[in-house]
Design a protein that fits this description.
Radius of gyration: 19 Å
Order of helices and strands: HHHEHEHHEHEHHE
Strand content: 5-15%
Oligomer: single chain
CATH class: Alpha Beta
Shape: globular
Number of domains: 1
Strand order of the largest sheet: 2-3-4-1-5
CATH architecture: 3-Layer(aba) Sandwich
Number of helices: 9
Distance between the termini: 54 Å
CATH superfamily: P-loop containing nucleotide triphosphate hydrolases
Number of strands: 5
CATH topology: Rossmann fold
Helix content: 40-55%
Length: 211
């Protein structure tokens, strides 16, 4: 079997060395989200501050935590989650995993409704796909039709096993609705271990001509 260094070539080895040895903490101690429009609304400002709190901690290689963004559609939750994901992807290439490779290969963006469609179709391996990544965004949980509670049980497992991993969650429900309509354990895990939940009560950007 060929050594992996022979497979990736000299240029690839140099690139990986640069990624592994650069000091990301020296230049990326604070993440900024100046593109996000807060419109002087307290809830939107709280979302922006939450994104800066999470991403700055991530770039400083602190202990993993969660940010959960809750509230109506059209208030920028998914947009802000994409910004967090992009910053993590672009700046954490130097963060070395246990296997010695950049952690960006262990980042996942999960559209929860599409995930549920795959689970309904029998692709149960997808659950591990969501649980395993070092960093994941779970976008739009709780929007699926689930009269039997089967999908909620899958969500409960994912939420439980993603504790102590970097996670961003977006949902159109309030924390109280998550507790009553989904599962109290899911709501509880969102606020434990230093995780942060931000509930937004703002008007859809499109409806006020800001989209």
């Amino acid at each position: 079997m060929k050594h992996i260094g022979n497979l990736i070539g000299r240029g690839g080895r140099r690139a990986i060395h640069r990624l592994m040895t650069r000091d990301t903490t020296a230049t990326h101690k604070l993440a900024k989200f100046d593109e996000f429009k807060t419109l002087d609304e307290p809830h939107l400002k709280a979302m922006k501050e939450g994104a800066e709190w999470l991403t700055s901690a991530m770039l400083r290689h602190e202990s993993p935590r969660w940010l959960t963004l809750l509230g109506p559609s059209g208030t920028g939750k998914t947009y802000l989650a994409r910004m967090i994901y992009r910053i993590a992807r672009n700046n954490l290439m130097g963060y070395e995993g246990r296997d010695g490779w950049p952690h960006t290969r262990l980042m996942r963006w999960i559209n929860w409704r599409k995930f549920c469609d795959l689970i309904r179709g029998g692709d149960y391996t997808r659950t591990e796909f969501v649980i395993d990544p070092w960093m994941a965004v779970l976008d739009d949980i709780g929007a699926e039709y689930d009269p039997s509670g089967f999908l909620t049980s899958k969500l409960d497992r994912v939420i439980n096993e993603r504790l102590r991993k970097w996670t961003v969650v977006t949902c159109n429900l309030s924390l109280e609705e998550i507790s009553s309509k989904l599962d109290r354990r899911i709501a509880s895990r969102m606020i434990r271990d230093g995780n942060k939940v931000i509930e937004v009560n703002a008007t859809d950007f499109a409806l006020r001509g800001e989209g």
